Amino acid sequence: MSPVLIKGARPYGEGDPVDVLVEDGVITAIGSVRVPDGAEVIEAGGQVLLPGFVDLHTHLREPGREDTETIETGSAAAALGGYTAVFAMANTDPVADNAVVVEHVWRRGREVGLVDVHPVGAVTVGLKGEKLAELGTMNRSAAGVRVFSDDGLCVADPLLMRRALEYSTSLDVVIAQHAEEPRLTVGAQAHEGERAARLGYTGWPASAEESIVARDCLLAFHAGARLHVCHVSTSGTADVLRWAKDRGTRVSAEVTPHHLLLTDERLTSYDPVNKVNPPLRTGTDAEKLRAALAEGVIDCVATDHAPHAVQDKDCEWSAARPGMLGLQTALSIVAETMVRTGLLDWRGVARVMSERPAEIGNLPDHGRPIEVGEPANLTLVDPDAEWTVRGPELASVSANTPYEGMRLPGVVTATLLRGRITAREGKIA
Ligand SMILES: NC(=O)N[C@@H](CC(=O)O)C(=O)O
Ligand SMILES: [Zn+2]
Ligand SMILES: [Zn+2]
Question: What is the pTM of this model?
Answer without folding.
Answer: 0.98
